[in-house]
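Action item from last meeting closed. Structure (233 res):
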């Protein structure tokens, strides 16, 4: 029995679950309620990148629809305070009051996220090579399997923690802990985000949790889990 518990304690899923649940057990949702109707008009300038209802048409820009207001609020404050750097978002956040942020977060959290089309692998750099569609489908299938396993179980060998511990079995995230919902997010944006965490280009997360995880991930693992998450509904 002791051996079984020791094995469990050593798994990245269990270890990260403890770190993720700790703030949930002790924290209350103190985020004030914003005005969604007011947020819609205040978010009008966001539509060019994130879509009118928070479902961006450009895959490198994140979908904001149905995202937890607590997470959106945290990120807007991070942009305004300079804890998260972005040449576009920083000046936009600087112009927002706390009430504006609450209203915008309330608006986007009330929208429904769109479902992504079935993922496809990008074309090979070698344009002269004839594409084997069956091989491409098999490669994509295997990639999604790797991504699903990584999301649920992590990688014990490289000590990559499972995403499910903080982001939930369906990618629903956790509002009280301000852990973002991930399901149906663009794979391109997820790949960029994880890569930024891995390189240190982005580090504004509690105790640099995502930085520590992403640094242990291979580029192929980042791609695989991003593709998998993009198919979650």
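Sequence:
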């Amino acid at each position: 029995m002791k051996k079984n518990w020791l094995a469990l304690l050593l798994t990245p899923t269990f270890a990260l679950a403890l770190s993720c649940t700790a703030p949930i057990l002790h924290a209350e949702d103190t985020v004030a309620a914003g005005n969604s109707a007011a947020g819609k008009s205040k978010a009008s300038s966001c539509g060019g990148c994130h879509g009118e209802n928070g479902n961006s048409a450009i895959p490198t820009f994140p979908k904001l629809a149905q995202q937890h207001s607590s997470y959106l609020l945290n990120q807007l404050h991070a942009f305004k305070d300079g804890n998260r750097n972005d040449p576009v978002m920083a000046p936009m956040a600087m112009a927002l009051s706390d009430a504006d942020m609450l209203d915008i977060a309330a608006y986007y959290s009330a929208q429904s996220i769109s479902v992504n089309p079935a993922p496809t692998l990008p074309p090979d750099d070698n344009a002269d090579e004839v594409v084997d569609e069956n091989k491409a489908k098999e490669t994509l299938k295997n990639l999604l399997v790797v991504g699903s396993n990584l999301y649920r179980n992590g990688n014990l060998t490289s000590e990559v923690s499972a995403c499910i511990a903080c982001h939930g079995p369906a990618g629903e995230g956790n509002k009280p802990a301000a852990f973002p919902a991930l399901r149906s997010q663009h794979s391109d944006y997820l790949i960029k985000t994880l890569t930024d965490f891995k390189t240190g280009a982005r580090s504004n997360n509690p105790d640099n949790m995502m930085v520590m995880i992403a640094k242990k991930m291979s580029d192929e693992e980042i791609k695989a889990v991003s593709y998998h998450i993009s198919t979650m509904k």
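Note appended to the action item: Residues 133-153 form the longest helix (21 residues).
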